[in-house]
What we know:
The structure holds two protein chains of two kinds.
Chain A: E1 10-14, E2 19-24, E3 32-38, E4 45-51, E5 56-58, E6 62-67, E7 72-77, E8 86-93, E9 102-104, E10 108-113
Parallel strand pairs in A: 1-10
Antiparallel strand pairs in A: 2-7, 3-4, 3-8, 5-6, 6-7, 8-9, 8-10
Chain B: E1 5-7, E2 10-13, E3 19-24, E4 31-38, E5 42-50, E6 53-57, E7 64-68, E8 74-78, E9 87-94, E10 105-106, E11 110-114
Parallel strand pairs in B: 2-11
Antiparallel strand pairs in B: 1-3, 3-8, 4-5, 4-9, 5-6, 7-8, 9-10, 9-11
Amino acid sequence: GESVGLHLPTLSVQEGDNSIINCAYSNSASDYFIWYKQESGKGPQFIIDIRSNMDKRQGQRVTVLLNKTVKHLSLQIAATQPGDSAVYFCAENRSGGSNYKLTFGKGTLLTVNP
Amino acid sequence: DSGVTQTPKHLITATGQRVTLRCSPRSGDLSVYWYQQSLDQGLQFLIQYYNGEERAKGNILERFSAQQFPDLHSELNLSSLELGDSALYFCASSPQTGGLYNEQFFGPGTRLTVL
């Protein structure tokens, strides 16, 4: 597979443990956030999103927390599995009229050890 | 499989050349977005088209251009290629022009290598 970054923050967990991946965003005007998962050799895949009027949203095995005060976003993965190994990106939407641009963070490499 | 297709999967060319990357959005999606992913810059938004019209521009060089055709497929043209243009180029699509809360579906990407 291909590496998407040589100097990514990395997180290594044991199978079955919970994972927490963090992301800091810069624009206080951002009002929509998405977590993407990118496996080696593939395009980013949507995991979960959250609007700025919420501070928590849950999906299947995943939870996103948003702290607007400190401009921090986190992704929690419960009972992490080997198939969760990937690079995880947070993305923010910087709204402005009809423009829609996703600004991505640098990503975090999650490695799940069996 | 996101439903977004991109061709070619790999492209190797020389500096100074011109290439065209092609993207077919998901059936029914009107918006197409192009992104560049490099090792040092991460995923960067380049440009968005909606129903044939340019809607948003990001960090796209003047040597790069794009268009969206009546059948909604899109092409990204890269000219006067430089070594630093080597990267993964992703196309994404979404149903609407994208105001907020509009998920983008990514294609598998085109790996461009400039020698």
